Amino acid sequence: MAFPTTLIPVKNQLYPASISEGWIYLFEIYWPGTCGTHYITNNNYDVWWPLPGGHIYHRSSCGVGELDESGTGKLPRFSVWIHLPNRALTPYLDATSGGKGVEVRAIVVNRGYMSVTQPALDLRFRVVDTVEDSIGQVNFELGIRNPCTRVVCRRMLQKSCTYREPFRGILCAYPGDETSCDRTFTRCLELNNTTHTGCFPAMGRGGLSD
Description:
Blueprint: H1 8-11, E1 23-30, E2 37-41, E3 47-49, E4 55-59, E5 61-64, E6 78-83, H2 90-95, E7 103-110, E8 121-132, E9 137-143, E10 156-157, H3 185-190, E11 208-209
Parallel strand pairs: 2-4
Antiparallel strand pairs: 1-2, 1-7, 3-4, 5-6, 6-9, 7-8, 8-9, 10-11
């Protein structure tokens, strides 16, 4: 994401020209189903962004934690903490089994340039864990889906074609004159069509994966 050109001089100042040109966080909490969205800010008054129109972000006690990195292969995470009066987030946590399916968007803008529609920073994460303490402060642990745990959602065979289409279809893409195929890798070799094969000859022993 490119940094807004308008805000580059502001970013490069050693000190803000005035207190009105401070950087603030805007948080959007997307609750699944019909629970709606919370728009909050760590500014000391409610703000609209972007101007005109946009959303109103309500002032709140909130902020971000430190980026959590480790050398054990775990994916990096960081946290957003929010404290609303009267445990206002508790019913939403209860309705989503502790925050399942919740996503949080963290935006950084300059309150002296609220008409700039491109934020200085715009991150969106899924909630991987939530903790609510005794005074009602909710800590959202944010991260991404682990790509190492994704399951292959198709059947893979070592010596048999898995395309669910007839011979010479879009995936097969055989360009020659032959009119039949027994859907084996051996036949792909005979037809010189292994570039488009639906077999997985490199699977090794076993020859089957679901």
